[in-house]
Design brief:
mainly alpha
Length: 106
């Protein structure tokens, strides 16, 4: 069964906590992701594919928009080379997991 990309995003964000169960660390982690535009774009990009599946009952890659959606994901990976507020490796892992969830091997 296909996972929701938003769940993949959330589980990846939870990996950023240096002290699981520590509410201060959790607030810090959440603040970093909420204020980072790249992180929001990753979440929205994944959610777009979820919404596409809900609306059309096929994966985003099965439609004419598939190459554009894939290009956005690759561009997001490129943005990780800039100055961002999160661990770029973890953010990249999130993008890769969403690609894999949609049937791509980036």
């Amino acid at each position: 069964m296909r996972k929701l990309n938003v769940d993949i995003y959330r589980s990846t964000v939870s990996e950023l906590s240096p002290c699981p169960g520590n509410p201060v660390a959790a607030r810090h982690r959440d603040a970093l992701w909420v204020t980072c535009s790249v992180a929001r774009m990753i979440q929205d990009w994944g959610t777009y594919a979820d919404d596409f599946m809900d609306e059309y009952d096929v994966g985003v890659l099965d439609g004419v928009l598939g190459p554009e959606w894939e290009a956005i994901g690759q561009a997001l990976r490129g943005l990780l080379n800039g100055k961002i507020l999160v661990d770029a490796g973890t953010a990249d892992a999130c993008i890769v997991r969403i690609f894999q969830n949609e049937g791509l091997e980036p």
